[in-house]
Design a protein that fits this description.
Layout lengths: L1 E8 L1 H18 L11 E3 L4 E2 L3 H12 L5 E13 L7 E8 L3 H18 L13 E6 L4 H11 L6 E13 L9 E8 L2
């Protein structure tokens, strides 16, 4: 089992991400797999957790000291991905500027996880690029390239508010469709 902690989109950001998801699907028939989760910016990629109960307790404590963040988005990216059960497909995301506030929050999360659980390695711990995924899995990568080409006409530079923290839970370490969801949400003040 795996889990992670993410910043969840406020209403404007949620609606914006869903609109881009829809536009990507119209342009490239990429599907709506990403709709399984609320729009979010991950603070860490999924990692093995000892138990959902222990991780939920950690989440509740960590969330008390996190405040809403405004995140600056920059550009749409598409790249090959086989994250959903190892099936070759694609991913489309809007990159986010790595602000001092965002980087500090990520660093604090990594430190607190290490203090509580020991090492919690995850893919891209050292080279993570903040982003909001708008489409993943469900179609061949050529569909993602087509959608990306069509949507690049849009200016993705905008600042959006993320005012909740989410605990995502993955029942299957291979992150197969239907084995993950947003288990818990905490409002940020």
């Amino acid at each position: 089992m795996k889990g992670t902690i993410v910043l969840l989109a406020g209403n404007e950001a949620e609606n914006y991400g869903r609109k881009i998801m829809y536009e990507a699907h119209k342009a490239g028939n990429v599907g709506f797999e990403m709709a399984r989760l609320p729009q979010h910016v991950s603070l860490k990629q999924p990692f093995s957790i000892p138990s959902l109960e222990q991780f939920e307790e950690f989440f509740d404590t960590f969330a008390r000291n996190v405040h809403p963040l405004k995140i600056q988005f920059e550009e749409l990216n598409a790249f090959p991905s086989n994250i959903l059960g190892g099936v070759p497909s694609g991913c489309m995301s809007i990159s986010a500027k790595k602000s001092n506030e965002l980087a500090s929050l990520q660093k604090e999360l990594f430190q607190k996880l290490d203090e509580r659980f020991g090492p919690c390695p995850a893919e891209h711990d050292d080279d993570y690029i903040f982003h909001m995924t708008v489409a993943i899995g469900g179609a061949d990568y050529s569909n993602y390239k087509k959608a990306h080409q069509d949507l690049c006409r849009i200016d993705f530079h905008r600042e959006l508010t993320f005012d909740k923290l989410g605990l995502l839970y993955y029942d299957n370490d291979d992150i197969l469709p239907g084995t993950y969801f947003c288990y818990k949400v905490a409002e940020l003040y």
